[in-house]
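Quick one:
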Amino acid sequence: MFCLRSLSSIRTSQHQFQKVVCFSMWESAHLEMGSEKPAKEDDTKLQLYNMRFCPFAERTVLVLLAKNLTFENININLKKKPDWFLDSTLGKVPVILHKGKIIPESLITCDYLDEIYPEPKLHPSDPLQKALDKVVVEKQSEVMKYLYPIFARIPGRVVTVEEKSELFGKAVDHLKSFEEELKTRATNFLGGDQPCMADYMLWPTFERIEGFPILMGEMGHNFVLPSHLKHVHLWIKAMRSTEPVKAYAFSPARMAKLTQIYVETDGYDNALKESVLCYNMWESTHLEMGSEKPAKEDESKLQLYNMRFCPFAERTVLVILAKNLTFENININLKKKPDWFLDSTLGKVPVILHKGKIIPESLITCDYLDEIYPEPKLHPSDPLQKALDRVVVEKQSTMMKYIYPICFKIPGRVVTDEEKSENFSNLVIHLKSFEEELKTRATNFLGGDQPCMADYMLWPYFERIEAIPILMGEKGQNFVLPSNLEHVHSWIKAMRTTEPVKAYGFSPARMAKLTQINNETGGYDNALKESAGL
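Output:
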């Protein structure tokens, strides 16, 4: 694990540690002119001056994360630099402060970290290979001269779409040498089976390239890396799977939105805040009373009325994702329902609109999707097993009566901690039957080696159960599922690895923060925005 500012003493409780890390993360305010210099009480500890979406500072962050180091992250506004920052540095990020010394520049800081913290070693031990890797980094870094005018604002002139297209073509030509390098090495990474220093030094450039198709809007198809850069595509995919990149990198959608807002406003923190809902299409504004009904141009296409953190609507989304279906997601504010929504539905989500018909309720929508889109089939083909699976879902779904009073505000009364504790105890007792079911089946999922309909129907409950220890704060250790529910724990872990859950599910930290904010304010979109990045 890594640690940010003021986290070094937080090691005793895994849930407490996760809570603090996820709520602060990287997106603290960027300090600017007039701000006070942060104190540094212990010179032996690392302190990093960063800018959240600077590609050069990102190199240093990735190395810190790869080495699992404890450090303090301080964001700097590079457009309005604090005097104390200008007085003590070269005026650029990254800067590392360590043992009373100031170490600037991405390549210098990363080399320094690799020498003083040699586990894991990121540079090759062979001096010749180390030099050759540095040549690759130097050569491939030159591609930024083509990329910068595509995504950045150049003072004094406007770069036309035609110029951007020409520059992208030159970037693609440049990357042919990287394609050949990767092809020659014939490994997942430049470093072999694991990324090396060169991989981390180059990643930030490609993170920005991935955002181009979205950033360029209608012209985006002209800014996609061509398929003949096969090994480059494989390398990008491999890098996306590494823990440092997963922890720090932006999605292509958010990178594009960040860039757009920043170019328009020059506001670092505003760009970070406004782009948090651009991770994916799920987090669009929830339509409410007074809004217009979205048009549906093609009746043959699926349209889903959703609420981003409704557990029942989540069931339908997971099935849609499991079947890799194209659809339009429309979020509905269930506290301020639009008239057109009330007039045409039962007033609840999920609702699927298809071929001019309105299909409500999670179980009904999911059964419908499994019949009209049979690949992959989620219900068992055997009618008896299908019925037995439905019994499991029906029986386990009653757990919500215990979960709800723990997590959610109940109008008209306050649920005491003692009542919450009693509800959690009843939940644990209830889950013993699910433990036995999983133990009897002796497979990763209820569906065997792959999840079936029953797995997806039950997952949303456990996504909320995982958040309870964080939601309960200091008393969280009393709300952790006991280790004797061994098969339940294994099932949760297996479900977290499935593509639909990875694409749509919330982390425990974000689910807890969402629940907390929604309970306090009732604001869906505000809760999503304030919890984004967790």
